[in-house]
Amino acid sequence: MRRRWRLLLGLLTLVTLVLGNLYVYRDNRASAHFGAHWHTNGPIYLNVANYASRWSLANAAIDDQYNNIGLLHWVKTTSNVDVFVFDGDYGIQNWCGAAFVDAPNGHIQGQPQAKYNGDPQMNCGQTDPYFVQGIFCQELAHTWGQGHHNEGTNGTCMSLNYYDTGTNYLVSDHDNADFTAIYSNHIP
Known about the structure:
alpha/beta, 6 strands, 2 domains, single chain, 6-stranded mixed β-sheet, Collagenase (Catalytic Domain)
């Protein structure tokens, strides 16, 4: 009889752990977009920490998105960070810029990072500030879910031609519409 109770207690414990982990997993997946600071019927505030050595160019990309995407408000800070901005000489890679989600220790929800690869062998526009700002702009937008589109050579940093130094280092009305389409349904 005692053995049955121990078996039943062990089984209940196992079921409780499995269901609890499924709940945590579901909850983290639902908030995988940053754990952003949502405000009822208002803008979305994302805390961004700029640790790039090309600080002014990354900052210009942050400001451009803040000023031109109606629902998005970047808050520059070093605490409670939603998105990190870095640059470095990452060696010969297949990217000049990349958006990563660093999920330490196997956690489901990680920290989005926008990175610029300034390795001299990569020829990623080190001498053209607009090129570098365009890469920061594109990678920041990738961290909040924006994909590429092709608006030609005078549109947006999200165009496949972001390397054109005309106006492609900035966000466009198209980017604003995309951000609104992604997030307007998520505002409580």
